[in-house]
Amino acid sequence: MSKTLHIIGGGMAGSEAAWQAAQQGITVVIHEMRPKVGTFAHRTGHLAEMVCSNSFRSDDHESNAVGLLHWEMRAANGLIMEQAAVHRLPAGGALAVDRDPFAQSVTARIMAHPLISVSYEEITELPTDGHWIIATGPLTSGALAQNIRAATGADALAFFDAIAPIVY
Ligand SMILES: Cc1cc2nc3c(=O)[nH]c(=O)nc-3n(C[C@H](O)[C@H](O)[C@H](O)COP(=O)(O)OP(=O)(O)OC[C@H]3O[C@@H](n4cnc5c(N)ncnc54)[C@H](O)[C@@H]3O)c2cc1C
Question: Which of 23, 79, 82, 127 is the 20 to 30 A CA-CA neighbour of 55?
Fold first, then answer.
């Protein structure tokens, strides 16, 4: 069995997972379908593109659960929080970032890591061996979503979201 960790999806979750594993000395391959295959919300081929609000919500780690999560991600030397600090925008007590330079910087950091490579391809089947993380988010491509649904049961899939529309 391969000792490489494969991650499907190079969004914020997949990028952070890749970073954390690689920092532990594990070889990682991120399989990201963009820019070859797009979604209705993503606009670029960058990793960690924010398709939602540019806010990571409250940064108050003493009285807000989201802020506490930020604190924990910083304590774990997380890549997303590192680059959020670099590209932070004024937003009161919230942690908001300049989304395009943020995604570009996360992509550059991932690309520069000696243990991480990125394979630009859509994964359509659920892997049957090896070590995999599926981090394809709410816009998982159709074929993979169908296979996840078949394996787990349609009623088992749910996605909860805050409403923050983007106006282009
Ligand atoms: C229109 C919209 C608005 C949103 N607004 C908010 C908001 O305001 N606040 C909030 O907290 N959340 C919001 N969300 C949810 C938001 O998507 C998540 O917060 C965040 O992006 C999740 O990160 P992720 O890494 O899980 O998924 P993503 O950032 O979507 O990353 C998943 C990656 O997987 C890739 N991928 C998908 N399928 C495949 C495949 N088969 N093979 C290879 N690669 C694949 C995609 O290209 C993408 O890069 C919104 C989502 C949408 C769609």
Answer: 23
Side-chain half-sphere exposure of 103, counting CA atoms within 13 A: 19
The CA-to-CA distance between both ends of the chain, in Å, stands at: 46
pLDDT along the chain (168 residues), means of 10: 87 98 98 97 96 91 93 98 98 96 98 98 96 94 93 74 52
- Look at residue 1 in the predicted model and tell me its pLDDT: 46
Separation of CA 11 and ligand 1 centre (Å): 6
Shortest-distance atom of ligand 1 to CA 11:
31
Write down all domains in the chain, each with its CATH number in brackets: 5-156 (3.50.50.60)
In this structure, which residue's CA is closest to atom 30 in ligand 1? Answer: 137
**Minimum CA distance residue for ligand 1 atom 13:** 52
pLDDT of residue 98: 97
Q: Which helix (H) or strand (E) holds 78?
A: none
CA–centroid distance, residue 44 to ligand 1 (Å) = 13
What distance in Å separates the CA atoms of residue 102 and residue 88, rounded to the nearest whole number?
Answer: 9
CB 10 within 8 Å of CB 122: no
137 burial level (CB within 10 Å; 0-12, 13-18, 19+): middle
**Which pLDDT belongs to residue 53?**
86
